[in-house]
Amino acid sequence: MDAFEAIFTRRSTRRMSSDLPPMELIEKVIEAGRAAPSGSNSQTTHFIVITKREVLTELTKLVQAEFAKMEVGPDTYVSLRNSITASKAGRYYFHYNAPVLIVTANRIGYGNALADSACALENMMIAANALDLGSCWINQLRWLTDNEAVRAYMEGLGLADNEYITGGPILG
Amino acid sequence: MDAFEAIFTRRSTRRMSSDLPPMELIEKVIEAGRAAPSGSNSQTTHFIVITKREVLTELTKLVQAEFAKMEVGPDTYVSLRNSITASKAGRYYFHYNAPVLIVTANRIGYGNALADSACALENMMIAANALDLGSCWINQLRWLTDNEAVRAYMEGLGLADNEYITGGPILG
Q1: Of A15, A121, B103, B143, whose CB is crowded by the most CB atoms within 10 A?
Q2: Helix axes of B113-130 and A113-130: crossing angle, nearest 10 degrees
Q3: Residues B145, B149, B151, B157, CA torsion sign
Q4: CATH number at residue B148
């Protein structure tokens, strides 16, 4: 696909087939993420790729349980408000049941961490579109990066002590 | 250019011709930036496009003067350290004398400001590459966004009271 077509036709996709895309497509998307620039070429964005349905299901239940403990305030950001409200109602699927979730993480205390990871994310979302895959930036784990239970679970999947979650796309 | 070629061959370019690229190419790059996703589709990234050589020269002198007043500490980020050292030596061109500088800004207090602008930046850098233009993320004005003199100058170019500088690419 042409570069401009890939950029201009990319949409945030929240409804997608639950079928796992071929691994070589997922790998191509990650390669595109790794090709993004980074501050002083530090290349510290860490890509944690989740494709196992049982892991996604466990994580989804955990995220719902943790959001359900939170309270909405007058200044709560609209998307976070929606996450909390839907979680309290017991019907929250933070990753929209997509078959693939890539979690991006980067170094705690590194000033370009979020900017670098966002460039990687945008590359991945354009690449996904060029491969005819849907994608959407998922921010919920970033909001919960300091949540003890979520952090412990993500550390089990490879998140390092010196990293925090910066975001990540779903694919499908 | 193919999307993957544009993604994989993009490089941070710091040496470029001083000739102003055709306006329609610059506009196409900005259009690509505007096509980036944003949190809750807020679309609040503001693109301030500087192509006048005298403005770039003034801004370059101002940036050098302000960095020259700063001191390097043991924990100063390597690029910021270089900016300060070169500025004190009177030989600092923060935009590498590129003919175009696009400054991105976004809302103060908006949690997705930097992430949204970074996605827009990555789109612009991929688009530039697809148009055979060089580009590089310039972070110096972000570091100086709270500097009184730089802020006043940028407000003269359109930066709003409720915005801060998130970064921006050079093009050429």
Answers
A1: A121
A2: 50
A3: negative
A4: 3.40.109.10
Considering only CA atoms, which of A55, A45, A31, A34 is closest in space to residue A165? A45
> Are A114 and B112 in contact (CB < 8 Å)?
no
Residue of A nearest to B8 (CA): A35
pLDDT at B74 (0 to 100): 94
How many residue contacts between A and B have a Cβ separation below 8 Å? 114
Q: For chain A, how many helices (H) and strands (E)?
A: 7, 5
B120/chain A closest Cα distance in angstroms: 8
What total of structural domains would you count in chain A? 1
Quick one: pLDDT at residue B100?
A: 98
Query: In this complex, is the C-beta atom of A28 within 8 Å of any C-beta atom belonging to chain B?
Result: yes
Q: What's the average model confidence in pLDDT over A41-55? A: 97
Alpha carbon of B36: minimum distance to chain A alpha carbons (Å) = 8
The residues, ordered by sequence, that sit 6+ positions from A39 with a Cβ below 8 Å of its Cβ are: A110, A111, A112, A115, A116, B77, B79, B137, B139
Residues A130, B78: C-beta atoms closer than 8 Å: no
